[in-house]
Amino acid sequence: MKKIIVGLSGGVDSSVAAFILKEQGYDVHAVYMINWHDTEGVIEGSCPGDDDVLVAELVARKLNIPFQIVDFSEIYAKRVVDYMFSEYEKGRTPNPDVLCNREIKFDVFLNKALELGAEMVATGHYCRKEVIEIKSKKIQRLLAGKDNNKDQSYFLCQLSQQQLEKSLFPIGELQKSEVRAIADKLGLASAHKKDSQGICFVGKVDLPTFLQQKLSSKEGQILLIPENYPEFNKTNNIEKLSFIEQLKIMSEPYNYTIEDGKVIGKHHGAHFYTIGQRKGLGIGGLKEPPFVLAIDVEKNIVYIGSGKQHPGLFRKALFIRKEEIHWVRPDLAIKNFDSLKITARIRYRQTLQEAEIFMQEEGAYIVFKEAQRGITSGQFAAFYIDDELFGSGVIS
After folding, report:
1. Is the pLDDT of residue 49 over 60?
2. Is 157 a catalytic residue?
3. How many domains would you assign to the chain?
4. Which residue range forms the structural domain that includes residue 380?
């Protein structure tokens, strides 16, 4: 009987994943991961560790499967949280959930599971895996979950073939409502538990307070950029330029200077803000709500625009440096100077967007059919062919 270790989080998804595997005849063991202890900056009541260990243990007892706890907090702090602080300090916006999956759940946890005698690990992610054979070689395909509203393939966009080979996603074929119904029928303690929010294993945080653990406050100016800022027209009449020059112009973020805007407020550190952010600016008196358009951490300036349709929030293309491209399917890697029509998303739960990827020596340019709102440096763009996620990369 094949031994499978499930990452049992105390949530309904991993609980039902464990049940399905047991029903399929596997020797199922449950492991609860502790990855974070500090509650500074964590919003009261959102800390995952409050009740989850107890709920996970109750679920394991109900399913009659072995249960144990492991503590990866030291590694998590180094590989995920320190990375977060470093990225925010540079003025980029990281995605800790993607890093948590790549570095912790499907690396440290996977290795621990193998050490404990498991053949594979399983999680409660809403995604699917399919194994195909090409030229006598087995290929792991990462597919979107059947529930379009809960598809979590994006969060696994940095996994490798080796990691996928040892992974199972038992609920990928189910709708969230079906998962809840199964847990309810079984009387699992997690059946009506709310979905976790915020940073993976940390919880929902007040970002400035959380970041102030390592990043200091520094007062700076908030500048309002008008809708008629000339650079918003930079893509007009670029047809006469070479194709690579067109790609570069379309993908470059707007370059604001202090002379381009009007000072309308102050902030406590540009690195505490993210592109597209609306709340927490403390700015009033505008016709429409303010949104962050850009941040300059070197000069400590936050640039904002009025209204969610402000042209500074939209861009037609993005760029990913060569060294920050990851192919989930190396056999589908796009060669230099080739292009491919794909769909892509730049954030979780975003509807897949029609695009074309152009591979150049310096990296990949992704040009969207429609201009995208809130393209953010440091976030991940994930590439799909139909419902298969085959690659991803960090947006420059």
Report:
1. no
2. no
3. 3
4. 314-394
